[in-house]
Each structure stands twice: as structure tokens, then as C-alpha cells.
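User: Hey, quick favor. My workstation is busy. Could you predict this chain's structure for me?
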Amino acid sequence: MQGLVLQLTRIGFLLLLWLFVFAVIRTLRTDIASAGGLRLPRYAGSDKRRRSPAQRGSARHLVVTHGALANTRISLGSQPVLMGRADDSTLVLTDDYASERHARLSRRGDDWYIEDLGSTNGTYLDRTKVTTPVKVPISTPIRIGKTVIELRP
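Assistant: No problem, here it is.
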């Protein structure tokens, strides 16, 4: 009789252990899924239907809207803008989630394109991860770590 009780106790303990493991895995998956699907707040002008004709023109400035460098404004020329933690970057980010050489914003004709430079945490245009050079519409948020920037006319 004692052998049967001991076996049932072992099986019960093993079942509880596996339930705990599955609960931990489920929690981790939920946390990872919610971190990957971060929702940025809607910015005024990020919706294409609300843009004024002046906003559809060529971008002249790069503005940091959120993060440690909020309200920083860089005038755009014909040269690419390198963003990252490296001291020789055009926009030096003091963000722990940014890589040394995180992303590059370059001009092609009248349009600007964002390109991720193999960063660890990725670059996001609005809510989409950038994997190839992507055209950046004016007033569309670009997220690098905790820093959010936008092109402005």
C-alpha cells in the first residue's frame, strides 16, 4: 500500500512540475508577444488622410519627438544621416537600446529612406520593423529603442 501511495505522490508531483513549466512558457510567450507588438501612440499627422498639402512636400528637418533628446532638430541636406550611439554619428543617441551604428536615413531624389544597419533591437517605421530600405513619409514616427524621430517639412 505504501508503494502505491509513494508512486501516486511522485506522479502527482511530476504533473504539478510540468504544469508549472507550461505556465512559465505561456507567460514568457505572452510577454515576448506583447513586447514585439508595442503600440506607439498616434501622433498628429501620422494618418495620411489628415495631412495638409504642405506636409506632402520634401522633408527639411529631422525632429526627435520622444526620448532623451526630445525636441532636437537636425536640418537635412543631401548627406545621409547616421543614427546610433557612436560618437561620429550625425544623431548620437544616448539610448541603451540603440546600437553603435543603428540606422541610416538617406535621400533618394525628393524622398528619404530609412535603413537598419544590423542593429540588435531593430528600427521601426510606425509599427513595422524595417528590414530593407523603406521610404519614410513625412510625420511618420521612426522608433529606435526608446527614441522616436520624424521627418518634418
